[in-house]
Specification:
The structure is a single chain. The chain is α+β, with helices and mostly antiparallel strands. The protein has 20 helices and 23 strands.
């Protein structure tokens, strides 16, 4: 006997309430659309299933970009952080990134509170079983309990819960991260709808009782005071509330791993999923880097109300009995108590070549995908995709043109372009080296690059927009002062403290700022002309002045790329019919369906000669 059903109507349904799902749902609801967010359990909303931190190299850039668009991740991270550091502070501004330790439980509670109190947004616990698709268009979602939620837009943000399996040694458990319930049926439905499904893997270390550690054997890692926050809307944050520790494995640790490699699922041939290149397990490190006598790790507190600590850098899927010996072989861990075992987790994801740069599915209109379902790794990459999917689903529902973020305007654009143009055969991680315009895509100017877009789509409120406008005015006013000449007598004390050689005559403010030893703090000690600027705006000013030559050259390259990006290609083009294109180029262009000449040129296997043929073909069609 078939079970009765009940149907509910929404404008949009978001499947998954992790970092991608949260940003997508908020973007939809905040732009006035009646939105449902569906999660296998409401206890994992915004859950930090891996490390208790937000940001990091390139990832901090993504958080600031999400914030500039009107997203939530940066605000919540600032509210719940326990430590904040600026990574790569000794290097250039292009690669400097904020990284925060956060209280993972407070982060979850705050995200749940935000969702519960957002107008137009309904939270519902339930497992999506299948998509309802009619005539190539998504029409809603059906749950395992036979409830139907009809909507004209659906965002899939399933994270690593899609048909996931936890693996410890030869033990396989059909569960999601931290043994939460998994999404069991949706993968088969997506496969039946014609989407290419892949199997990826990631892993996580043990959580230990922090009271069982001998901290005298580890190196203290404090937060950095007086550095700015993730969100421009946050007030001063407490960056030094908690400390972390740095430690190292040793030869005894490595010997235990080598002796037990046959029990490691990967080396025993038990794991099929492809793991992350830039976050290998400790057994992978020992095998791949045989000459290394030790590997570093960080001990990070999980939160304020718990003694659990996260052993960043020692993820493993070795049997629990081996893990016990492995962790206790480390200096300072001789008496350590494991509270949660380390594990690997396999999960299903789609081939991101199934998507347009808007993150809408090519085969199913109105279906958007965001986060680890697209083959990425990381909370920040997920949030970035989530806000884009939410924005574009909202624009589609409101009958407006969807937005394509580009490589020259954001790390978000780089991330999505890499995914939908080249695809990925392993969990994709954002890095500054992936961005060819990284000097222009800094943390300090994320708001200058993206706030107007957030305003146009309806996510940037008046308060945020006023702050943005003030920063623009401050920078414009400061620019007028840069050519003022300061006498040697006036700048001598500054140069003396900065260790800079004196010039023979007066120098402009611009020339003084360009001196390597002149920091923002030192300049403000002797001159007050920028006193009314926010620290964030003043830092942005100093960077733009110091690197103006490089930025000018980068701007020329950006202009050329923009020209190519503005040469649109219709997704309906059949490249097999274009004479002069090589067969490989035809096949790959037909698969990717690029939306511009610029994107077409970045497809692996499409040559400059193919692009010339394509441009000529377009000209003939006009």
């Amino acid at each position: 006997m078939s079970q009765p059903t009940k149907t509910f109507n929404y404008d949009a349904v978001v499947v998954g309430a992790g970092h991608a799902g949260i940003e997508a749902a908020l973007a939809l609801a905040r732009t006035g659309l009646n939105t449902l967010i569906l999660s296998v359990t409401l206890d994992n909303i915004g859950y930090l299933a891996c490390n208790p931190s937000i940001g990091g190299t390139a990832k901090g850039h993504l958080v600031r970009e999400v914030d500039a668009l009107g997203g939530q991740m940066g605000i919540t991270a600032d509210k719940t952080l326990t430590q904040l550091r600026m990574l790569n502070s000794s290097k250039g501004p292009a690669v400097q990134s904020l990284r925060a330790q956060v209280d993972k439980y407070a982060y979850h509670r705050e995200m749940k509170r935000v969702l519960e109190n957002t107008e137009n947004l309904t939270l519902r616990q339930g497992e999506a079983k299948e998509l309802i698709v009619e005539e190539g268009k998504v029409c809603g979602v059906k749950t395992v309990y036979n409830l139907i939620y009809r909507a004209k837009a659906v965002v899939l943000a399933c994270g690593v819960y899609l048909n996931s399996t936890i693996i410890v040694g030869d033990v396989f458990l059909k569960r999601g991260p931290v043994s939460f319930a998994r999404s069991e049926y949706l993968s088969d439905n997506l496969r039946a709808l014609g989407l290419e499904i892949r199997r990826f893997k990631t892993g996580t270390p043990a959580r230990i009782d922090g009271r069982s550690v001998d901290y005298s054997a580890l190196e203290l890692q404090k937060g950095q005071p007086d550095i700015y926050s993730f969100s421009v809307m946050s007030k001063k944050v407490n960056a030094t509330k908690r400390v972390c520790y740095l430690g190292y494995t040793n030869e005894k640790t490595h010997e235990i791993i080598r002796e037990n490699l046959s029990y490691a699922p990967k080396y025993a041939g038990l794991i099929d999923g492809v793991g992350p290149r830039y976050c290998p397990s400790i057994e992978d490190k020992v095998v791949r880097f045989k000459d290394k006598e030790r590997h570093q790790f960080f001990l990070e507190p999980e939160g304020e109300g718990t003694v659990e600590a996260y052993v960043q850098g020692i993820s493993t899927s070795l049997p629990a009995s081996v893990q016990y010996d492995l962790y206790r072989s480390i200096n300072g861990f001789e008496n350590v108590r494991i509270m949660r075992d380390a594990y690997a987790i396999e999960y299903d994801c789609i081939n991101p070549l199934e998507l347009y740069p808007t993150l809408e599915c090519k085969k199913i209109s109105g279906l958007f995908c965001a986060g680890q379902i697209n083959g990425t790794s990381g909370y920040e990459e997920a949030a970035a995709q989530g806000i884009v999917a939410g924005i574009n689903a909202s624009l589609m529902l409101r009958g407006k043109k969807q937005i394509v973020f580009t490589r020259d305007n954001s790390y978000i654009g780089v991330l999505i372009d890499d995914l939908v143009t080249e695809g990925t055969n392993e969990p994709y991680r954002m890095m500054t080296s992936r961005a060819e315009f990284r000097l222009s895509l800094r943390q300090d100017n994320a708001d200058l690059r993206l706030t107007e877009i957030g305003r146009q789509v309806g996510l940037v409120d008046d308060k945020r927009y006023r702050k943005y406008k003030k920063k623009l005015r401050d920078l414009a006013n400061a620019e007028k002062l840069l050519d003022n000449v300061i006498s040697p007598k006036q700048y001598a004390p500054l140069f003396n403290e900065a260790g800079e050689p004196m010039a023979k005559s007066g120098l402009t403010v611009r020339d003084i700022i360009k001196r390597h030893g002149v920091t923002v703090g030192l300049f403000n000690k002797y001159f007050d002309m920028f006193a009314k600027m926010s620290p964030d705006a003043e830092n942005c000013l100093f960077v733009s002045v110091r690197y103006d030559g490089y930025l000018a050259r980068a701007e020329k390259a950006r202009a050329e790329q923009k020209r190519l990006e503005n040469t649109a290609l219709s997704p309906s083009i059949n490249y097999m019919t274009i004479d002069g294109l090589r067969l490989e180029a035809r096949e790959k262009l037909n698969k990717v369906k690029p939306l511009s000449i610029g994107q077409a040129g970045r497809i692996s296997g499409v040559t400059p000669a193919d692009i010339n043929v394509l441009i000529l073909s377009l000209a003939k069609r006009k």
